[in-house]
Fold MD-2-related lipid-recognition domain-containing protein.
Amino acid sequence: MPCQLARPTNTSMVMVYDALYDAQQLTYMQVITTLGITAPLSPLAGNNGCDNLTGSSCPVHQGELIISSHTIIVLPIFPLVDVTVEFSVVDELERVHTCFIYDVKIIV
């Protein structure tokens, strides 16, 4: 069942994971697939993972418990379609610290 995201709204998610590497910087990366097209989302405000940490700060250290949040901004211009989102948290060397895939249905 896909997550239903109403337009126009903001929805937050919280991620909890262990840092796989020492890192100075964390960045959120997203790739979407919809209507048979796969494309990276352009970096938007809020993609700096270091700005969204709870109880810690960058730099992070291997094995450190990381709690971070991300706000999904559903714009009023988004079409009413199903979307698959590949979400990754990467460091300055483009190493993936955590990643997951979720399905979304944009609704009114």
Observations:
- DSSP finds no helices and seven strands in the chain.
- The mean pLDDT is 94.
